[in-house]
Target: DUF1772 domain-containing protein
Amino acid sequence: MADLLQIVPVVASGLFAGTALGISVGEHPAREVMDAEHARIHFDESYARVSKSQASLAVVAGASSAWLAYIGGPNRKMHATAAVLMLGMLPWTVLIIFPVNDELRSKKKLSDTEIKKGLRSWGKLHMVRTVASVAAFGLATLSLAASCSGSEQEPRPIVSY
Model:
């Protein structure tokens, strides 16, 4: 069962990391070349669509990694580190990134300079989540691979004589 459970953090952290990386290397740089008001609208629309799934994926990846660390095994430290990285996204986002999000998503009028500055700041802060989630995905994947290679047994014949 633990081997099957190891798939959960791989999938959840992989989906989170893939989305975060796509935003960091594709979507956000595209926003930075738009005029400020269109970039702000795009940010608001994108954020509204992605935020709930990313929060859920962070919780699932972090909780499943924490559970695997708790139940032990040879990869306990990898699971614990992946759990800290994924669950650490939540306070990072709430305490550090939300103020920038709130400013960019507010209905108050911001100057083009304020919008561009906010978007640059958000991109740097989001990159922390990208790097952390890619690292957590790597750890979860390595742990699963180590578990699979460590559980290999001699093949048994179908019929024994």
